[in-house]
Structure formats: C-alpha cells, structure tokens
C-alpha cells in the first residue's frame, strides 16, 4: 500500500523552494522513494511523455484521499498561479497534524486494549494454575454437562466482551472526520491572485472532480462576507479558522478516547468477570469440593 503523502510533500516543498523546477523536484522525490511509490508512478508517466500535471492527475485519482488532495492542490495551484512550494508546505503541515492526532488516539487506546486482553486471559490462566496445583478442573469442564455449560457460557461472555470492545474502538475511529481540505485549497487559490468568488468556484470544481466532498461551503461564504464587512484580510481569517478547526478536531479525538477508556470498563464487569467465574472459579470450587468428598 503506498505511503501517505506528508513526508513526500515536505520534500517537494523544500526542493521547489530551493529553486528546482517541478519536473526536477518530482524526479528527485521519485528516485528517493522508488518506482512503486506514488511519486515513482508519477515520474514514470512523466518520463513516458505525459505532461506533469496530467501525470499527477492520472496517478493520484486512484489513490487515497490524501493523495487525491495532492492532485487537487496541484490543479488549484496550476489554475491560480499560486507558488507550489508554499502550497505543498501548507498541505504537508495539515496532514502531519492529522497524522499526529491519529497516532495520539492509537497511543491512548493501547492501554485499555492491553488491559482487556490481559483480563480476558485471566480465566485461562486460572485454569492452568488450578491444574498445576493439583485441582482437576479440566475433567469438570470437558467431561460433565454442568462443566460444558459453564465453559460454553464463559466462552460466549469472552467473545461478547471482545466484540463489544472492537465495536467501541471502531466507532471512535469512524467518528473521527479529518477537516476538509476546502479551506487549504481556497487559501492556495486566493494566494494565487484569484478573487474570493472565483477561488470558491474553482475549489468547488476541483474538489468535486477529485471526489473530496463538498463540506464547508457555508463557512467560506461567511468568511468572505465578514472580510468584506470588516475590511480584514480574507487569507488571515481563513487561516485562523483552519487552525481552529484542526485544534477542535484534535481535542475531540482526545475526548473521545478518554470517554472510551471509561466505557471499556463495562465489558470487564458485565462479561469478563462472569466469564472468569464460569471458567475458573466454578471448576476450582468443584475440584476442591470433589477432593474434599473423596477425603
């Protein structure tokens, strides 16, 4: 699976800022990352005679939303005449912020997930401990009807706990929606000299063309109106709003993980604890009682 674009974009931005032509910059990045990478595929098409913009368009359309955003940025910069180095650097920074948030979410989830896995193994560890201690728990579980029922009920509880955990973790990731690149594209178009209205039209066209969604139109309309009323530079307003959106997205992700850590306690009490009782405590009690009767 091709890597996501932030590091490649940062390299492109530096090379372009140093004065390399777009062709040469893509060639250098492609050589660094190999022919199987997205830059490698783009340069392969460029070497075959395609125009660079067409090669970027052809390759990025079939990639992840991150690379489709790169294609959209290149198209907006081409149409508006915006400096490519600054545009790619801004986009790379936004993508790095999103990756940092994703890594933070995964790190926060590692603790609760490890706890659930460990507690889920406790019934099995208790069985092994009982067997090593001379208590014949396995005979009860596998050779008696009450034991089979107890084992089946315990395994069902463990399975439901694992399923519950997976559902809650998956929901956290599904509810995380990275900010739309609309404002980034708009800032590029405005920075290239297009009027706000023309910039909005171009951004809408390109985003629809690259299947990046169309959320956020009302926000940009409001920012344009505010800029005209207050006489404040539109780019400054849009940049401030974009930074705010990214901060909110990061904070919401952290809040969701904190809430999940509390909610993950529910499977422990409602499912894993009964499973421990059914698989470990009941066989141990039966084995100890059975040995007492024999004595």
Topology summary:
Elements: H1 6-17, H2 22-33, H3 38-47, H4 52-60, H5 65-80, H6 84-132, H7 137-143, H8 145-175, H9 182-191, H10 196-209, H11 217-230, H12 234-263, H13 265-294
Helix pairs in contact: 1-2, 1-6, 2-3, 3-4, 4-5, 5-6, 5-9, 5-10, 6-8, 6-12, 6-13, 7-8, 7-13, 8-13, 9-10, 9-12
Biggest sheet architecture: none
Helical element count?
13
- Give the total of beta strands: 0
- Bin the helical content: over 70%
Which ranges are low-confidence, i.e. pLDDT below 50, for 5 or more consecutive residues?
Answer: none
Backbone CA Rg: 29 Å
* Percent of residues in β-strands: under 5%
Morphology call:
elongated
The average pLDDT value, as a whole number, equals 80
Any idea how many domains?
2
- Report how far the terminal alpha carbons are from each other: 65 Å
| Structural class by sheet pairing and helices | mainly alpha
H-E order? HHHHHHHHHHHHH
Describe this structure in words.
The structure is a single chain. This protein is mostly helical. The protein folds into 2 domains: 6-92, no CATH class; 105-295, no CATH class. It contains 13 helices and no strands. It has helices spanning 6-17, 22-33, 38-47, 52-60, 65-80, 84-132, 137-143, 145-175, 182-191, 196-209, 217-230, 234-263, 265-294. Helix 2 crosses helix 3 and helix 6 (84-132) runs parallel beside helix 13. The radius of gyration is 29 Å and the shape is elongated.
